[in-house]
UniProtKB/TrEMBL annotation:
PANTHER family in the record: LONG-CHAIN-FATTY-ACID--COA LIGASE, NONRIBOSOMAL PEPTIDE SYNTHASE PES1 (EUROFUNG)-RELATED
Domain AMP-dependent synthetase/ligase: 9-381
Gene3D superfamilies: 3.30.300.30, N-terminal domain of ligase-like (3.40.50.12780)
Pfam families: AMP-binding (PF00501), AMP-binding_C (PF13193)
Organism of this sequence: Rhodococcus artemisiae
InterPro entries for this protein: AMP-bd_C, AMP-bd_C_sf, AMP-binding_CS, AMP-dep_synth/lig_dom, ANL_N_sf, ATP-dep_AMP-bd_enzyme
UniProt-recorded name of the protein: AMP-binding protein
Domain of life: Bacteria
AMP-binding enzyme C-terminal domain boundaries: 447-523
Length: 535
């Protein structure tokens, strides 16, 4: 059968209605209660004229309404659009217009203010749903454009059950990328492909995907009532994938308004969190700092795993976490908005990220031909099977990222580079778009960043190329240091890096900043870093 995400969630809610589904701050909702709230949200949207295939921008921080908006929209076969609330007004307008959003869900007054200023440039928006109080500025802007403003609280008066239209595995889920190297792109997933790839077929800890909804229900009943804390904001792909995965399993999802290492550690104590999801070193570094600070007084006994996805998670950060709690299971997931969950990396003694052989992952050259196992050739990591339909309204980038081979096989090629060993193991080198060519030698930014994060004075770092008259490009590092670390010199950085990196990979210049800029999900902002290094 083909799966629809709303059908899957409703199946889980019916299977384990009394199990806690969502913990947000001090509020706990069972699966039955969360399903009821999502039903109310779906009716609110439908009564406002939102229908099948309509796109609705979810311009919210983490909150209960963020979850019920997503669930309510897919229940009525509409398409939720994830919005990075840190974007500039220009970037936000791009998202609203590019996604063809006909409505926006918004909460914070500062977000309402920006939305009010953008309404004239977003002609398709006809409705705004406001969580909390509506600002006067938004009221005036909406009135001038004849845009309806509806209080999200009106959903509370609607029935807890509803009859929704029959759904399909072909329903669309549109997930916008982080846009850290350019404008975001909308990845078009069929619901069935979304279930089978990002959600691992509803069985991420088993061998076989679920065959039907009856197996989904049985799996949820059998799955232990584990608590998963998603540290990333829900507008990030890794967080959305995790949210749906844990809901499919019938697990308890713990959310916080913002990522704050202090509240994450507190949640482990108070909510008996067993698994934490982070996004690479951007979250891992401040989290391990807090774990070290609280290691003698915080009760971390319930925590048995930390999982990362969506960004590089360096060996040094993992080693520090294990020093605090040696029995932790650390899992480094490989994936992207365009591929979903590709499996977990293994880390060898040299710190290399290695992906075990998989039928859904191959290494290809520029002609899309397989790279022979055991060769020293560097190629592109390609994913096959349950590939997205493409990028929304961008045929050119779709053709480049999701090419079709001569045999009809569709690939997803994002620019991740690697080598393939004789047994089929793929060794991950880094993202090609972040590859620095210095005198003909290729340097992957992630490898240098991992080395920098092992320096005791470095709280965060990004690596970018800068122009060099003789070498073409040179390696530059943008570094933030701990407050009590003292001065950090280029010579000290170079001496540290020589312990693990070849000479041509060592930074030739550094820029020390107060804070390394990252997205709310902890992903690198390389455009910002390049501007800093250029100065």
């Amino acid at each position: 059968m083909e799966f629809n995400l709303a059908d899957v969630f409703e199946t889980t809610a019916s299977a384990v209605p009394d199990r806690i589904a969502l913990t947000y701050e001090d509020l706990n909702l069972t699966y039955a209660e969360l399903d009821a709230e999502a039903n109310r949200a779906g009716q609110l949207f439908a009564r406002a004229g939102i229908s099948k295939d309509d796109h609705v921008a979810v311009f919210l921080k983490n909150c209960v309404e963020h979850v019920t908006s997503i669930l309510g929209l897919i229940k009525i076969r509409a398409v939720p659009i994830n919005v990075n609330y840190r974007y500039t007004p220009t970037e936000l307008e791009y998202i609203f217009v590019n996604s063809d959003s006909v409505a926006v869900v918004v909460e914070l007054p500062e977000h309402q203010q920006v939305l009010a200023s953008l309404l004239d440039g977003c002609p398709l928006i006809r409705t705004v749903f406001v969580v909390g109080d509506t600002t006067d500025e938004l009221k005036r802007a909406a009135e001038q454009r004849s845009v309806a403003v509806i209080s999200f609280a009106d959903a509370h008066d609607l029935p807890s059950t509803a009859e929704f239209p029959e759904r399909s595995g072909d329903d669309l889920y549109l997930l916008y990328t982080g846009g850290t190297t350019g404008y975001p792109k909308g990845v078009m997933w069929r619901h069935d492909d979304f279930f089978r790839k990002p959600l691992s077929g509803g069985n991420p800890y088993g061998d076989e995907p679920r065959k039907d909804l009856a197996e989904v229900a049985a799996g949820a009943k059998e799955f232990p009532g584990l608590s998963f804390l998603i540290a990333a904001p829900l507008m990030h792909g890794a967080a959305l994938y995790s949210l749906f995965t844990f809901f499919t399993l019938g697990a308890r999802v713990v959310l916080r308004r913002d990522f704050d290492p202090k509240t994450v550690v507190e949640a482990v104590e108070n909510d008996k969190v067993q698994v934490i999801l982070i996004v690479g070193d951007g979250m891992g570094l401040p989290l391990v700092d807090e774990m070290e600070r609280r290691k003698d007084d915080a009760d971390l006994s319930s925590l048995f795993s930390i999982t990362s996805g969506g960004a590089i998670w360096s060996t040094s950060v993992r080693d520090r976490m294990l020093a605090v709690k040696p029995d932790l299971l650390l899992r480094d997931n490989f994936g992207a908005s365009e591929t979903g969950n590709d499996g977990a990396f293994n880390v060898d003694e040299d710190g290399n990220l290695r992906m075990p052989p998989s039928p859904n992952m191959i290494l290809v050259d520029e002609r899309l031909e397989p790279v022979p196992p055991g060769s020293d050739d560097v190629g592109y990591i390609a994913r096959i099977g349950n590939v997205p339909l493409g990028y929304y309204k961008d045929e050119g980038k779709t053709a480049r990222t999701f090419p079709t081979r001569a045999d009809g096989t569709r690939l997803s090629i994002l620019g991740d580079m690697g080598r393939v060993e004789a047994d089929g193991t793929i060794v991950f080198l880094g993202r090609g778009s972040q590859c620095i060519n210095t005198g003909g030698e290729k340097v992957f930014a992630e490898e240098v960043e991992s080395a920098l994060h092992a320096h005791p004075s470095v709280s965060d770092a990004l690596v970018v190329p800068v122009p060099h008259e003789r070498m073409g490009q040179a390696v530059a590092a943008v570094i933030a240091i701990y407050p009590d670390a003292g001065e950090l010199t280029l010579e000290a950085v170079q001496e540290h890096c020589r312990k693990s990196l070849a000479g041509y990979k060592i930074p030739r210049s550094i820029v020390v900043v107060d804070e390394v800029k990252r997205t709310p999900a902890g992903k690198a902002d390389y455009r910002w870093a390049a501007a800093q290094a250029a100065q």
